[in-house]
C-alpha cells in the first residue's frame, strides 16, 4: 500500500500540524504534499520529512500573504499528480481535500472543519480589521470557491471529523456522514508540577476570532495577572487593550510552553473552537481550564472537575467564572486522567485501524 499525505499549508505550527507529526509517525515513508512550507516556522522534525511543495512556494511574500492568495489554492491541489498512490490521506480545513483521484484510489479526509472563511464567513471576518467594502467584495469572490469545495467533498470516500461539532457541520454542509477521531494530545510532554505560580494563561494564535480580547478585558477589570503565549495578526490591537497586569510572551518552543502550562493557575480558553488541544495539554499538566461553553470544549471538559465554563462570549460572563474559580479546589490527578483519554497513542491506534480497514475493504 502506497500512501500520500496532503495538507493545506505548513507555514505555522498548531494543532493541525501536530496531527501531521502523528501521521508521519504512523507512515514515515509517506510523502507530504502541501502548497507552501516555511521551514523557519516549523519544528525541527519537519525538516526530516519528505515534504513536497507546489509552485506557490516561489510566489512573492507568500508566507506573509498566504491568505491573500486564496484564489490559487484550488489550482494547486488540483494539479498535484498523486496517481502513483493507493491511499490519499488529506489533512484539511480548507483546500487539501480538493485533490484529484482516480476511481481505484482511496481518499480519506481528516477534516478539522468545513472552511470557516467559506461557511461561517460572518463570524470569521466580523472582528477582522478589514473595511466593510472589502468584506462585502470578498464574500462575492469566495462564491466560486464554495462551489469548488462542495463539488470536491463528493470525491472524498470517507470523512473523519475531529469532534461531534465538526461532524455535525460536515453533515449539514456537505451532506456526508463521518466518524470521529479526536486529534492527538502529547501527554508525555507534560507532568504535574508542585510549583503554583500566580498567573492565568492564554496559549493561542492571536487572531480576532479567538476572542482573546475577552480575557484581556476581564483580567484588566479584575486586575489579574495574565500571560499570553502566541503570535498573530491581532497582536497590535490586543496589546493596545492590555493593562499593566498582562504580559505578551510571544511564541515559545515546546520546552518553554511546558513550563508556562505546568505552573499557571489556570488556562483560559475563550473562543468557540472546533476541538482545542491546548485545554487538554493543560489538563495533562494537572491545570484546570476556564473555557467558553461551546465547540470542542464540551467534549473534552467536565464542569467543576477539570475546569469551569462561562456561558456567554462576554467579558462579564468570563469575570463571573474567574470569581467562582478562586473558591474551588482541583484534583491534579483527576485532570491528568481526563487528558489521557485523548492521548496521541489513542489517535494513532484509531487512525491506523480505520485506514487499514478501508484499505482491506477496497482490496488495495
**What general outline do the C-alpha atoms trace?**
globular
Order of helices and strands: EHEEHEEHHHHEHEEHEHEHEHEHEHHH
What strand order characterises the main sheet?
Answer: 3-2-1-4-5-6-7
Distance between the termini: 7 Å
How much β-strand is present in the residues? 15-25%
Helix content: 25-40%
Mean pLDDT: 93
Largest sheet: 7 strands, parallel
Short précis:
This protein is an alpha/beta fold and 364 residues long. The protein has two domains: 3-184 and 344-362, Glycogen Phosphorylase B (Rossmann fold); 187-340, Rossmann fold. The protein has helices spanning 15-26, 73-79, 116-119, 121-125, 132-141, 143-153, 164-174, 212-222, 235-241, 254-263, 277-284, 297-300, 315-325, 332-340, 344-362; strands spanning 3-7, 32-34, 51-53, 87-92, 106-111, 158-161, 178-180, 200-203, 226-229, 246-250, 266-269, 289-292, 307-310.
Describe what you observe in this structure.
By secondary structure, the protein is of the alpha/beta class. The protein has two domains: 3-184 and 344-362, Glycogen Phosphorylase B (Rossmann fold), CATH 3.40.50.2000; 187-340, Glycogen Phosphorylase B (Rossmann fold), CATH 3.40.50. The chain is built from 15 helices and 13 strands. It has helices spanning 15-26, 73-79, 116-119, 121-125, 132-141, 143-153, 164-174, 212-222, 235-241, 254-263, 277-284, 297-300, 315-325, 332-340, 344-362, and strands at residues 3-7, 32-34, 51-53, 87-92, 106-111, 158-161, 178-180, 200-203, 226-229, 246-250, 266-269, 289-292, 307-310. Strands 3-2-1-4-5-6-7 form a seven-stranded parallel β-sheet, with helices on both faces. Strands 10-9-8-11-12-13 form a six-stranded parallel β-sheet, sandwiched between helices. Strand 9, helix 9 (235-241) and strand 10 (246-250) form a beta-alpha-beta unit. The protein is globular. The termini are close together.
